Amino acid sequence: MNAATIPQFTIDALEAGTIDVEDFDHEAHVYIAWLYLEQYPLHEATARFTAALRHLTAQLGIPGKYHETISWFFMLLIEERRFGLTAGDWFSFHREHADLFASGADSILCRYYSSELLSSDRARTSFVLPDKLAN
After folding, report:
1. Rounded to 5 degrees, what are φ and ψ at 109?
2. Using CA of residue 132, residue 100, residue 70, residue 110, what is the dihedral sign?
3. Residue 55 and residue 131: Cα distance in Å, rounded?
4. Mean pLDDT, contiguous 10-residue spans, the chain (135 residues)
5. Beta carbons within 8 Å of 17's beta carbon, 6+ residues apart
């Protein structure tokens, strides 16, 4: 995702299930989560975001792709980090928190969660606290 594609990702499109899923990568997920947190208090933002993701995966016929722990973990991290910003826009957030966008072995999830826990049915269907200490 780059600056030119950001406007296509909106809360309304996600909630309506009309978001272009081909471009809805991890960075786009983080962006939409950030939008929710800009508009709503944490509890409401999280409830709306997770409901929209569950609805989208069900609509696509892949309800098992939704992951409760990952969704909640990122919502909590994004909310916490929004308060340390020197400027409150998306580009500043993205620049200051590049670790949120790493994937694979470099993913921030690997610092907090074992792969065994993240791959469990329990973590997929309900939020679980990290089982590792962050470095």
Report:
1. -60, -35
2. negative
3. 28
4. 58 92 90 96 98 95 94 96 78 90 91 96 97 77
5. 55, 56, 59
Provide the token pair at 56.
């989208």
> What is the per-residue burial (b if ≥16 Cβ within 10 Å, else e) of 24-54?
beebbbbbbbbbbbeeeeeeebbebbbebbe
Residue 69: strand, helix, or coil: helix
Q: What is the pLDDT of residue 4?
A: 33
Identify whether the C-beta of residue 46 lies closer than 8 Å to the C-beta of residue 72.
yes
- CA–CA separation, 39 vs 46, rounded Å? 11
